[in-house]
Amino acid sequence: MYPVWQFPAIGSALVIAFIASFHILPSHLATSAFWFNVYVENKAYKQNRPELLEFIKKYVLTILIFSFVFGSLSGVGIWYSITVSNPKGISALIHNYVWGWATEWVFFIIEVVAIYVYYYTFGKVDKKTHLTIGLIYALSAWISMIIITGIIAFMLSPGKWLKTGGFFDGFFNPTYVPQLLMRTSFMFAVAALYAIVVAATLKNKEVKSFIIRKASLWGIAGTLLGSGFFVWYYKALPDAAREVAGMTPLIPAIMPHIVIGSLIVLMLWFIFTLIKPNWAKLVPGVLAILLLLAGIFSAESMRERVRKPYVIDHYMYSNQIIANDMAAKHVKSNLAAIDAQGILHYAYFVPAGLRDITDSNMLQAGKVIAQIECSACHTLQADGWLRPLPAMVKKAGLSNVDDAQALIGFLNAFPYMPQFAGTEMEKKALAVYLVSLYK
Fold it and tell me: How sure is the predictor about 168, in pLDDT bands with cuts at 50, 70 and 90?
């Protein structure tokens, strides 16, 4: 097992959530915006309205800065944070989908080249060629989404892969199609929202009105279709995930309200800008983007949480312990070995003197066990943001070791909790540590 990376108070899982939720904005903008760009540019040429090109230049510059600077930085942040937080999980994904990611990178490189060529060839190549460059970018960006969605969906619903280990059996899993259609629809709403913000800064009222009205229609269509596909996606979730989705200990009751509320407000915003395009202003548009970010964070958090106790459903627990045998990949569960050896002997990175538990080191050993088995989903500090263990201990009333040890013994009775892995002595050590948090 790899070393445990902890981010004090916040927790490693929330670090990933913050970075990944922000990354969705620039990545979905980068994926969808050029479809709108090509549409507007084509209108400009067909209707002989060169004034529309002013918007396109501003919009492309927004994409370049926001998506290819902040989006690229947050993309690197995602890779770093998931690698240090759950190296075994990301290793499993890489071993299964290295060629999928390699293919996605080919199209990402095409995106990078295409957007720069598109931006710097304004007025320097013929209209048809310029539109073709824009279309190449749009298709490449969407193909990137097609590939990445398969890998993301696989983690929650691996489908036949659990038996066959096949690349495409995991890629074209039960939630793949509805999630791809949902993300594709919502990406147009993201593009519309940013288009309205950019258009709000234009001085030409006629162009501003035209762009905002068209973008509003795209936004309304994207939001409605995305919401419809979300219902399909929810119904396609594994039964266990839908069961966990209704459990408030794991999913705060406010999160679904934030998601639904943000969609309603965004729909109202698109309707308003459709009716009164010249009333659209920069500040309300930015606020709408921030509201969208809140909705994205809540939705993505819910998607991650319903996967518990796994990082890859029915294969690997969130704490990187392999839960079930995977015959097709010749992988065996770690649980039997850990129960026999003890987690402190099984894990490579354990402080000196703690592999063998004694009365004098039991509290310290218990803390290390909690770091290895619990910190993926809980912070150990009382002021932690992510389901802090001290608060959980007090809520459960674990004031004595026997009660704590008994609870640890049937943690897997909760659908979102992995079973404890380790010896009876390690179970006792963890119980001693938990009771110490009751104070």
Answer: very high
Range of the domain at 212: 12-317
Identify whether residues 260 and 347 lie together within a single domain. Answer: no
- The end-to-end CA distance of the chain, in Å, is 32
Across 97-108, average pLDDT: 93
Q: For residue 393, what are the contacts with CB-CB under 8 A and spacing of at least 6?
A: 404, 434, 435, 437, 438
Who's near 176: CB < 8 A, 6+ residues apart? Answer: 149, 150, 153, 154
CA distance 436 to 439: 6
Q: What is the pLDDT of residues 323-361, one digit of tens each?
A: 999 999 999 999 999 999 999 999 888 988 899 999 899
Please check whether residue 290 is in contact with residue 296, taking contact to mean a CB–CB distance below 8 angstroms.
no
Q: Are residues 285 and 391 in the same domain?
A: no
For residues 52 and 201, membership in a common domain is answered with: yes
Q: Distances in Å between the alpha carbon of 40 and those of 11, 120, 194, 219, 433?
A: 44, 18, 14, 15, 62
- The phi, psi pair for 322, rounded to 5°, reads -75, 120
Number of domains in the chain: 2
SS3 316: strand
